[in-house]
């Protein structure tokens, strides 16, 4: 079982056991199952040992191959995925990144005023803390395979995501990222100007 810590609440996913039990029920080795799904044996091993989670396409293939419904295969995992998606929105690293970036922009004026050019050390330090938090967020998203979970939750709501919709979602995510960065840069510039104005 895969254990996931969600806001101090430990929840387990069951798909890993289901894959192994159904594979053994059919008398298949990991290599044989891998060849039927067109994936590597290592991928099957990772699924069974909870190192990764199959994407929606492979979940559907497993469901057909094992002759079990997707509901039976997931057995409660969708609730865990919904918890993870909600937790991702309030991740502590996201808050840390936002606060550190805001403080770095606001501290430029006073730091330079009081310590000269050496005063830039503080904003640079705060920006580095923010970058570290951003890296942690991306690693966390990768470890928890949030895009895959989003697809499964959508499928459970009878919303099948085709390639065109995936492409639209990718483009939408990139546009949102660019707009967010532009708005943040404008806000950071405003905070920096406010910092300079406050020390005059």
Automatic annotation (TrEMBL):
TM annotation in the entry: 93-109, 115-135, 175-199
Entry keyword Transmembrane: yes
- Annotated HTH cro/C1-type domain residues: 19-73
Domain of life, source organism: Bacteria
Q: Name one GO molecular function term.
A: DNA binding
Keyword terms: DNA-binding, Membrane, Transmembrane, Transmembrane helix
Q: Name one Pfam family in it.
A: HTH_3
The reply on keyword Repeat is: no
Task: Kindly give the PANTHER family that the UniProt entry links to this protein.
Answer: HELIX-TURN-HELIX DOMAIN PROTEIN, TRACRIPTIONAL REGULATORY PROTEIN-RELATED-RELATED
**Would you tell me the protein name for this molecule?**
Cro/CI family transcriptional regulator
Q: Which organism is it from?
A: Secundilactobacillus silagincola
